[in-house]
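Give me structure tokens for this 204-residue protein.
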Amino acid sequence: MKKIFTLCVGLTIALSSWAQGFVFQFQGKNLADGETVVIAAEEDLFGDLSCETNSATNPNDGLVLRTLGSMASSGSATLQITSNDLNPSSLQWCMGGACMTLGSQTSLTKRFSAGGVTLVQFDAVGITSEGLLTATLRATIGLESHQVNIVFVNGDYDSIGSPRASAARAAICRDLNGREVQGRLLPGIYVVTDGTSVRKIAVK
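Here you go.
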């Protein structure tokens, strides 16, 4: 009986160290699996319009993957662009090491080392059109997988609930008086919230 108990304890310790777990976080808050992060276009350091999951001034306050265990391990992640109206000059993804440029590709998969905090660092630089870019990021470590939806927004887009903005359906757009706005946005400043983030967007 003692041997069986010792074997069970050893197996439990081995499994807990192997399946350490991880979460996506945005601005320090844990995201539920499949949750959406909405990020509005802003001028970058060079004066170009860009959307970034992690700002240059405070990258750890952006979108990160945080492992819950103490041991480093390797994982894989796939970034899938589901729609892109923004016409950026470049799309770059630097998760867990070397940067990858998407070019005309709509999907990229890479391996990364996970331990502590891993920055996602997905950027759309040199945005020249109004609209949305929607993407999904799925990460897998061991047997565990989680997904986060990313929505980049520039200016006026027809409706947050439109079919092409399906990844942003959970988002709510309000004017500066706090009134919810639906349909086409008129010129002005709006606040977009999705339960995990709050962003201002300017419609010209």
